[in-house]
Amino acid sequence: PGAGGELQLTDAIQSLLAEEQILAYRYRGQRFDCGSKFGYLQATVEFALRHPEVRADFEAYLHDRLGLS
Hints:
Elements: H1 9-17, H2 37-50, H3 55-66
């Protein structure tokens, strides 16, 4: 276990390696640390700004909330 007794992803991968093959995939794009509150918020905002069903309303909300014209 890692800090605070939490199981970290790297710990879990290391344990799994003892039992089976691990494969990885390198991707292009942006990643977010959703294990932190700020990273989760960043991911949520980015998702909303890219989603065709909510983008316009969300942008309008942000403009209004931030006092932008």
